[in-house]
Write a structure and sequence with these properties.
alpha+beta, 3 domains, 14 strands, 49% helix, rod-shaped, transmembrane, membrane, transferase, kinase activity, 2C_sensor_his_kinase
Length: 474
Amino acid sequence: MSLSDRLSLRGLASLWVVLAMVAGGAAVWLWMASDAAWRAHLDRAYVAGLALADGLDNGSPLPDGLALIQLDAAPGLPPGWRQTVLTLTGGGRPDLARGARLSLRIQSPDILYPAAGVESFGGGSQATGLASVTRLLARFCSDPRLFVQQDSGPWMRIDGAAVWGCDAAPPDRRLWAGALALGALALLLGWVAGISGAFTDFARALGDHRARNAALPVGGVAELRQTAQAVNAYVAQDRAALENRALVLSGVSHDLGTPATRLRLRCAMIGDADLRARLERDIDQMTVMIDGVLTYTRAEIGAEPFRDLSLTSLAEAVVADYQDVGLPVSLRAAAARPTRAGTLFSRQTSRPAARTTAEPHAMLMRGQPTALRRALSNLIDNALKYGREAVVMSDADADEVWITVTDRGSVLTGDDLARLTGAFQRGENAGAATGVGLGLAIVSTIAAQHGGRLEFHRRSEGVEARLILSRRWA
């Protein structure tokens, strides 16, 4: 178990705030210490340049790390090297120069030093100009050679590697300071993204249609684990309540079977035919009501496993059952929808060939076969109850499949159709037809468990009920 799984969100936030402050403080200290060391290094080089100017003018001793080597001739430029040539004067302008001119040549194997870095170039004192040159040499890591000449005197090489060489420069830790700050920021943002992603995954899993039948993943910070455990416990209790309800109703239905059978036998011995018929009708209605409530509860549970099936084959089987008993139920094939499709090598100006969609038997999906048979049977029963016949048709596209059941002669309105999807609702023209008003409610529940919906459309010949299902819902 990782650290984020063992600590709470408050503890992790406190820990990361402290670590961020420590990393930020360390980065600032490294940056400031390195910057101060570099300032001191450049200041030492500047002071060494002032002392060098004084030694050239007055012959005073040179500071430690500097040495003068007199040359017999003007210095030559080695092949591939770069040279910066400067002339320092003692006045504000060359025509107002005071003292001897100081000619400088800076030779480097890899750097052409910028003349703009010499603060007194073209004016000011020679001492500050030479100090600016030595400070400029100390700023860059290289192995330069500095040559000076006073007026027309001999050229001299100044050996100052101990002052402005690479080995004399302090280590620059500012890059490490920036890397430390960026690394701490990246870790903090990564932790925030990880925590946010865990909550996002939990929300996605909670919104998944399978969350009611599967336990949510328990992980992450303590608060998220507690939330997942609480939701899992709630879902388990809700499912247990539904299962207990179905168990009780199943037990009641089974227990009432024996008294109902005795009542039917006793009704058969009643001489009054009218009274006997009314009693038998009441017994039938009671039995149908209990079976309907039990079916509705089982549909809410949705415990049947999903499997691959052919919707067209299922519709054919259900319609055949009704036709076997002589009921006016027929199956209509879906109309072929022509599409245009061309080949990869056909010209755009040519007319692509027409083709039809896949055969009806190719309407495959994942679903609960028993629940779908019950839903289709309820739609057909509803069409026969409120109309004179039922016409069944199935169709599909890439994402959904649907079954339509159209009746003949139904006078139901849009408000009636919307109301009938509720539990224990019946149409006004149901008459003496059996039922308790749970048929369409069961269909709507089964449709939702398959990622679909139940729709009604008014047609010229009657009412069309459309059961729309997702092809890959589970």
